TrEMBL record:
It holds the Pfam family Sua5_yciO_yrdC. This is Threonylcarbamoyl-AMP synthase. Keywords: Cell membrane, Cytoplasm, Membrane, Mitochondrion, Transferase, Transit peptide. Coiled coil: none annotated. One of its GO terms (molecular function) is L-threonylcarbamoyladenylate synthase. InterPro entries: DHBP_synth_RibB-like_a/b_dom (IPR017945), Sua5-like_dom (IPR006070), TC-AMP_synthase_SUA5 (IPR050156). It is an enzyme of class 2 (transferase). Cytoplasmic and mitochondrial threonylcarbamoyl-AMP synthase required for the formation of a threonylcarbamoyl group on adenosine at position 37 (t(6)A37) in tRNAs that read codons beginning with adenine. Catalyzes the conversion of L-threonine, HCO(3)(-)/CO(2) and ATP to give threonylcarbamoyl-AMP (TC-AMP) as the acyladenylate intermediate, with the release of diphosphate. Participates in t(6)A37 formation in cytoplasmic and mitochondrial tRNAs. May regulate the activity of some transporters. Residues 1-132 form the YrdC-like domain. It comes from Alligator mississippiensis.
Length: 151
């Protein structure tokens, strides 16, 4: 990924490889090259590379970043199939069915990604625990020695 085009990375490249692709969203300082209309009220940007072949192929086919949101109403469980958010279809320009994005029988898959702020060097803040909290914290603390910064 061309990280520098979208955000300032202040962690080792291997840390990025350890967490992505996967169910983790990394929050970093946005770069000047990222369209300011994508998140106009913050200097931060969330970066996620899902471990889902269809989404990754779609992203690779696009010349720039994809600005996406979850297909569910805020604070409700994450949807895993397009039929689960059928009530939102009339409000959407496009719906693409690339298959389920997780185990539909697993409650953990409905927690959404673990969102972690890495914008401060040497520290991390958990913004949303999500479905990969344990493994993510283990990597950040044990492998890279980052310190938890309370939110």
């Amino acid at each position: 990924m061309k990280w520098a085009a979208y955000c300032h990375v202040n962690v080792p490249e291997q840390l990025l490889r350890d967490l992505l692709p996967g169910p983790v969203t990394l929050v970093l300082q946005r770069s000047d090259g990222l369209n300011k209309d994508l998140n106009p009220f913050t200097s931060l940007v969330g970066v996620r590379i899902p471990n889902h072949a269809f989404i990754r192929e779609l992203a690779q086919a696009c010349p720039g970043p994809l600005a996406l949101t979850s297909a569910n109403v805020s604070s409700q469980a994450s949807t895993l199939t397009v039929s689960e958010f059928q009530d939102l279809w009339p409000q959407l320009s496009l719906v693409v069915d690339g298959g389920p994005i997780g185990d539909t029988q697993s409650p953990e898959c409905r927690l959404g990604s673990t969102v972690v702020d890495l914008s401060v060097s040497g520290k991390y803040t958990i913004i949303r625990p999500g479905c990969a909290l344990g493994p993510t914290v283990e990597i950040l603390k044990q492998k890279y020695g980052l310190t938890l910064e309370p939110s």
